[in-house]
Every structure is written in C-alpha cells, then in structure tokens.
Amino acid sequence: MSSKQLKQFSKDEVAKHNQPDDLWVIIDSKVYDLSRFKGLHPGGISVLIDEEIAGQDATEAFYSLHRHEVLEKPQYQRLQIGTIEGEKPVIHSRIVGELSKVPYAEPTWLTPGYHSPYYSDGHRKFQKEVRKFFDEVVFQDAIDREADGKRPSQSVIDKMAEINMHAMRMGPGKHLEGRVLMNGLVKPEEFDYFHELIITQEFGRASLRGYGDGLLGGKVIGLPPVLNFGSEELKARIVPDVLAGKKFICLAISEAHAGSDVMGLQTTAVKSEDGKEWIINGSKKWITNGTFADYFTVGCKTEDGFTVILVERGPGVETKQIKTSYSTTAGTAYITFDNVRVPVGNTLGEEGGGIFVILSNFNHERWVMCCASARGQRSIIEECLKWTTQRKVFGKPLHSQAVIRSKLAAMISRAESVQSWLENITYQMCNMTYRQQSGKLAGQIALLKSYSTGCGQDTARDAVQIFGGRGITQSGMGKFVEHYHRTIPFDALLGGAEDVLADLGVRQALRAMPKNVRL
Ligand code: HEM
C-alpha cells in the first residue's frame, strides 16, 4: 500500500479492534489488520487474539518470533492499513551498499572512528562499490538459488563479467593486464591482495555457503594451474571465455580412493600410440562446480608419477550431482572419465610434476578460504547480537544472562583475531614474490586456515546454544545460524583438514629452527 493510502490512527482507536473478527495490531508504529489473515498465520490464531496482542503494540512480541524480512514480503505488506499518528517506523532492513552499525558486524577498518595501516582510500572506494554490486546484483540470487538448488543465474555471472569480477577473483597478476576493473575504479597494476580480500569478504556476507561455492568457486581453484602452467596456445583458447563467465572450469583432484594423498589417486592417463593424446580413465569425487563445468583440471597417475591435465567436457566425460549437506547450487559432482582423449598439449606443467602444480596453488586457495571464513564468523556475531538484544527471557533481553555474554565475548575475540592475523598475512603477500610467499607463508597460512575454521566451528556451536531450537531450524529466526552450523564443516575440510594444516604449520616452523639455539 502506498503511503498516500495509509490512514493515521491513534493507539486508542487501534485498541478497539481486539476481537477475532476485527483484529488489528501495531508493529513498529505500523497498523496491521489481521482479521482475515489470522486463519493463515503460521504461528496460529491463539497467539494473535491474546489480550496482550490484539489491538495492542505487538512490536516486542513480533520481533521475538519473526525476522524483519517477514514484514517485507508483499503478501504481508498488504496487511498494513495505516500508521500511528505522530510516530514513524524505526526498524528497517538491509540498505543497499550500507555498512552495518551493529558492533563487530564490520571489520575495524570499516568501522567509523577506527584506523588501519593496510587500506588506502582506493581500497575504501573499491569496497563501497563491491558491496553495492553484491547487494544489488548477487544477494537475491543467492537466496533464491540456495533455495531451489540451481546453479547461480547466468545473468549474475554476466554482470560480474562486465566489471571483470571473474578476473579480479583470481587475484593480482598478468591476467588483469589490459582489463577495465570495476568500471575503471582500480588500475590492473594497482590491484593487490587487499582488493581480492575485499571481494571475497563482501561476497561472503550472504552467509549462503553453497551459493558461495556455486558462484564459480571451482574457477578460483581450477584456473590457476592453467594460468600458471598452461601453454600459451591453451591459455589463449581457454582463459578468455572462463574469465568472461561463458565457460566454467573446476579442479578435479580428490577421489573416493584418495584425497590429500595425491600419490594414492587412481585416475590414469596413458599416451596414445602416436604420442599425441592422453587417454584418461577413472573417477573424481566432491568436485565443486563439476556438474556444470566445461573444463576439468584433473590430477592423473601417469608413467612418470602424477600429472595435471586439462580435460574438456566431451565424449567419455560424465558428471553426476552429489548431495552434500549444503545446497546443490554448488554443483558438487561425481565425475567419471571413460577413455577420454585429450591432446598432450593440455598438460599443465611438467609430465610427472603435478604435485608442484597442485602445491603451488594451495597457499592462495587457503588464504581465500581464510578471507571467507573470517567474514562468515562476523555475520554470525551480528545475528547473535541482534537476537540476544531483541529476544526477551524472564522479562529481560537474552544478553542480560552472563553465560550468553561470555559466549559473545569468545565469538568476538575469535573473529577479531582471525581478521587481524589475516590482514597481517595479506600485507606480507602484497610485499613478497610468489616464490617468497611459498617459502615464508605456507606455514602461516596453513596455521591461520586451521585456526580460523576451528574458530568458525566453535562460533557455530556457541551460536546454536544462543539460538536454541531455532539454531537447528531451517526457516525463521535462526535460519542463518542453522545454515552456518550445517555448512561449517566445508570450511574445515576444503583445502586441507584442520589437523593436517596445523601440523604443516608446525613442521614448517621446525624446519626453520636455528641449529645453534638452546634453552
Ligand atoms: C503482520 C503480522 C504477522 C505476520 C505477517 C506473521 C507471519 C508469520 C510467519 C510467516 C511465521 C512463520 C515463521 C517465520 O517464517 O518467521 C510466523 C510464525 C509465528 N508467529 Fe507470526 N506473524 C505476525 C504477527 C504475529 C504476532 C503479533 C504474534 C504474537 C506473538 C505472532 C506469533 C507467531 C508465532 C508464535 C509463530 C511461530 C514461531 C516459531 O515457529 O518459532 N505473529 N508468523
């Protein structure tokens, strides 16, 4: 209803409509007529005709039980018949492009009055535009696709391509040369790892994990081996279409037989008699974006050991959806290769040198995961701070309980420490060559990844305790907490399991121990 048609009522006038067939309520100074809706109300009739609700200001009761988005649905907006005279609504939903004012909902560098040594004015302008883009173009698609399980809409992927978002998500590098980034906001040579961090964290705000991976997460890990190890001919043929969002690529390493143990993989590649082609046989499992990928960066057992080969979808390649605990929008696949013939020119790196190809990718891949994990935790803190403020228990907000505040303290400390360590590492990355990063940061990034996803799991558990039954319910107040708690194991597994990474970090440190130190 437009504001012109809305009538103004006094509270006394509203109070007269307190009968089942004449049932009005006030929520945030808006007057709703629930007389006909009451029979359809998912929470039942009795709660609405309660004498403390019918004809009364039900704002507190409403926000104790519903997310604000309920009132924004067109079918419910229609129930509004007026407003209370002299009052104005104060509660509003997410405003496109705006920063949250909830404490700790944004990292320090985005919180007014705080400072950071890492971000320039250019980064700040960039963040504003990325957030606006995400809110306007991506957010609704994330909600819709997460619900229907289809892959992210091509229209979103096309709009991302227009601003070269697919290329920027690959991080700084040659692939940005000659491209207009974010409508010219940042020059390709200025684009650094903080820009990339901003993109990953802004896109992580939706807290919809399956969609996050569906939005070409496979490309982020599957394309670097092509960019770094593919022949010029192969790159010219593959990369432009992938970065334009016209073709999709994924990384196909893990199998039912083996995962991190890449030497235990059983997919084989043998040369054809004329030596011009690879003939590939085997299967791959849990391959993100595999169901809709056109290209597969495949780890194969070859005569010389382990080799990475780019396979194009064609005869002999089959992909099947795997249903995991997050949405099928990620396109997680089981893939079979049945006598698939691939030109030898599709080899990425040296024959038998596949382990180097894969390892060289790991640092960046894990760092991207840390960026997303740090942001995911912050979204959950925002949910918990809002909930514990609006939820009343024993007549007081939930946060009046010391045990609840203690959980909030732990969540905040974890998220802030992850972000601070992440920004430090990112700064090091900006000032190191790729080779230096491999030497000096592999251990740090592995430890951060392990720490960050461990923090995420603790925060998920605490958040469920705070939300109670709602934290395990897929709709309503706790829906994001439920989603986070259900999908957090992905963060803790992908790119290396927590214990393995923590151990890697310590082994790297031990390797650097000076020989001449003693207690
Ligand atoms: C414009 C007014 C209202 C609308 C459009 C509305 C709509 C809904 C919807 C869609 C749900 C399903 C749960 C969800 O998706 O969040 C729900 C649940 C519920 N509503 Fe309402 N409602 C309204 C007012 C009220 C009021 C005033 C009360 C009074 C206390 C109330 C009590 C409940 C209860 C108890 C539930 C079940 C909550 C749960 O399962 O956790 N509703 N309502």
Automatic annotation (TrEMBL):
It comes from the Eukaryota. This is Cytochrome b5 heme-binding domain-containing protein. Belongs to the acyl-CoA dehydrogenase family. One of its GO terms (biological process) is fatty acid beta-oxidation using acyl-CoA dehydrogenase. GO terms for molecular function: acyl-CoA dehydrogenase activity; flavin adenine dinucleotide binding; heme binding; metal ion binding. It holds the Pfam family Acyl-CoA_dh_N. Signal peptide: none annotated. Residues 6-85 form the Cytochrome b5 heme-binding domain. The keyword Transmembrane does not apply. Keywords: FAD, Flavoprotein, Heme, Iron, Metal-binding, Oxidoreductase. Its cofactor is FAD. GO terms for cellular component: cytoplasm.
